[in-house]
Amino acid sequence: MPATRSERKRDAIVEAATEIFLRSGYRGTSMDDIAAAAGVSKQTVYSHFADKEALFLDIVVSTVDETGDPVRAGVVEVADSGDLAADLVDLARRQLDQVLQPRLLQLRRLVISEAERFPTLGEVFLERGQARTGAALADAFARLGERGLLVVDDPVQAATHFNQLILAGPVNRVMFLGLVGIPKRAERDRIAEQGVRAFLAAYGPTTPR
Amino acid sequence: MPATRSERKRDAIVEAATEIFLRSGYRGTSMDDIAAAAGVSKQTVYSHFADKEALFLDIVVSTVDETGDPVRAGVVEVADSGDLAADLVDLARRQLDQVLQPRLLQLRRLVISEAERFPTLGEVFLERGQARTGAALADAFARLGERGLLVVDDPVQAATHFNQLILAGPVNRVMFLGLVGIPKRAERDRIAEQGVRAFLAAYGPTTPR
Is A133 near chain B, with CB under 8 Å? Predict the structure, then answer.
């Protein structure tokens, strides 16, 4: 089904707005700038988005969803794993590839920058991304507990620890060092392997050493 | 030894600058604003600090040092622990109390906001704080390994995992939710206890369950 004229305009607005927000920051961007960059009237921008906050929120939600949805599909599959250590490393690598996408990291920094003034943005970022993936992971770990492949009294806690062991270090580095701090493939593999090793030592039925 | 007139002026500049930076952001603050708030001439500000970046860097270094130094003293003591589980929980609680100080968290957000433009700020923040505490922790874990109380092939990796299990979750939440997201005492205790339990299950000589 081809996009309508109105849908195409909406896409152009979102695309132009994303670029300007990432370049000039949230406060440094006006609806006028966005209309000009998208090649539409300011009235058209307002016909799609009530205000700048609504437009930015839309960008946050769609970016977080687009990057997170494929990873959550992989999380569900891990519950049926036949080779847990290998499958968790594979999942960890995919999670790293997801959260380390430059556009998502830039958006994360922008949301953090504005968090004290616009806590809604931060809540949405956490809830659409991390919280949903964490819940899917907790379900998978509970199932793996039933299968005797993990020992988990508290699957939500285990999911939190898994995410912290895998994702917290590299994301934190990029927040402080900028996109040049994004780890390359070999470093991501090391983070995934070491993180899963520690996780399985903590939550596996036997310690692998 | 009483402070000289010049030292008192320098302190007044740093105090005024910290408040304005945290309120108006790095880019939203000028050396004129700082001179006015400190009640000194702009020339006096420049006689102490070459430019705005040097002044902000000074604030970052002194804040990170002041909050981190007492915690590192505690890290060194853990190497001689007679009750490792209890002492690690105690250390974790003190680390949480340190990183969750509102002024340090606000400064962290400000440094992150500017990281793409001023990576030096981010490097300094990481190196003066996290990296030094991590190195002290790695030394302590290596010593605990020699004493047979931990099993650590790679003490730096173990220190990284310890920090991630304890600090990453709450700091991340505050970055997204603002200071209202700072966990209270009971929640901090839970984070410390669960984090240390997972750490000792992964790196202790026996699993405690």
Answer: no
